[in-house]
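[INFO] parsing input record for Fatty acid desaturase domain-containing protein
[DEBUG] input buffer:
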Amino acid sequence: MFLQRFILGLHYSEHRRMFKNTPGGTLLNCVAPFLLAPFYGIPCGVYKSHHVLMHHVENNLCPHDLSGTDRYQRDNFLHFLFYLCRYMFAIWVELPYYMITKGRYTTALSTFSLASSYLMIITLLYQVKPIQTLWVFVVPFLVSSLALMFGNWSQHIFVNPDNHTTASDYSNTYNCLNTPDNQKSFNDGYHIVHHVNARCHWSDMPSKFLDLIQEHINQDGLVFKGVGFFEVGLAVMTRQLWWLANRTVDLQIPTRTQEEKIAMLKKRLAPVHR
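[DEBUG] output buffer:
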């Protein structure tokens, strides 16, 4: 019921600490990522390494971003299935190895230790209380893995091949405006804005979007209205680009026709080869 709220609360608390950097504040800042996260299917202490230190640094660019989407055909279900399975089965090794390649040896050690401890504890608990462990830890992990990966897949499902560089945060994601999801997810729909400045407070994102309107126009940033990320992802996977085309916000002048919008969306679903 509160999975979306918890994950997005965890998300922003890892970008910006909720409590001041005092002994008491540091302890309180550890409650969500270390104590609560495993009950929501997220290995304790690993989210920051994966999302903040890896995903935002590499900015969806494969192969360095382990959750990058650009090399996949993003309306292909089998490609998404591979993407999901890679996270579920390989991230335990790939994420620490990524940290090693970046010279973050302490982070690599802590990530590997925390992930390994999470797996070992669940294995031990399953031997003692299999049914309880299944529903308290294993099922939440499966549900959260699907939610996290389909969420990230959907957020980065449209990649502009004409403007796809590490310097451009406008080419590999989009914004969702005027959607109820923003009221439950700390304005997560402003995803271009979030990638431009990951430390922007969630309450400032609408005004920040207005400040960045001209840059959205200059770089042909994609904006939808009245839909959230999961709806966008489901529409793509069910081949309903016409439905999404009706929900794009026209920033360009002259505006695109319906056919031009569909063609643009199709182009941004293809694998990007560099």
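[INFO] The two ends are 41 Å apart (CA to CA).
[INFO] shutting down worker
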